[in-house]
């Protein structure tokens, strides 16, 4: 029996892959990766390793094309198998279901955590998701699941100071409406970040009441990360990573876009 490694590739910058993740990639006999990882990471794979297909983003994760069954088959053939996914493998990736099935089948596996895209995106625009004076708590959400838990949104509004929302497509209008209905203030600062931690990183800021206007920016695309909360204003002072000066000026923020 071989072994399966479920590895988080991190948020985008190849240098943010963990050392353990890199070691596993270099020793893999078979490797599958999703198409959202930075293509530079493919160079880490040794030439003799069998490389799996990229998984289309708009499909059902690791189920697409029978990838999960392929992992099982190669492990049962005594291979060292890697599945490399963007961010962290146990955060909205589907790897948790694969880990469960691996355990059910008695296949040895290991989860190698990765830096989550949401937390990295916040850090790379100078936004601390927690702060001793402004935010004692944060929560990570998936925009596509907000309709499934309307009651939870109301409790989240009362309990958490910062939202980190993973946006797999343009849900901005939906998110704005849901959060306003849940009790978030219309003037709550928000920031949308795409291609976080890479040279193509782009940040667009607004207020919650005009979040949908971010989608009107011709440079905005999805997937990306939406940050909601007072801590977003720290971007004014500690926006340390700005490779191509693509950050909107503070004057635009004040106008609500």
List keywords for this structure.
257 residues, alpha/beta, single chain, 26% helix, five-stranded mixed β-sheet, disordered C terminus, five-stranded parallel β-sheet, 8 helices, 10 strands
What can you see in these coordinates?
By secondary structure, the chain is of the alpha/beta class. The chain has 8 helices and 10 strands. Helix 5 crosses helix 6 (172-182). The termini are far apart.
Instruction: Classify the beta-strand content into a percent band.
Output: 15-25%
Give the overall shape: globular
- Average pLDDT for all residues: 86
What integer value in Å does the Rg equal? 19 Å
Please report the distance between the alpha carbons of the first and last residues.
57 Å
Determine the number of helices (DSSP H or I, runs of at least 4 residues). 8
> Helicity range of the residues?
25-40%
Structural class: alpha/beta
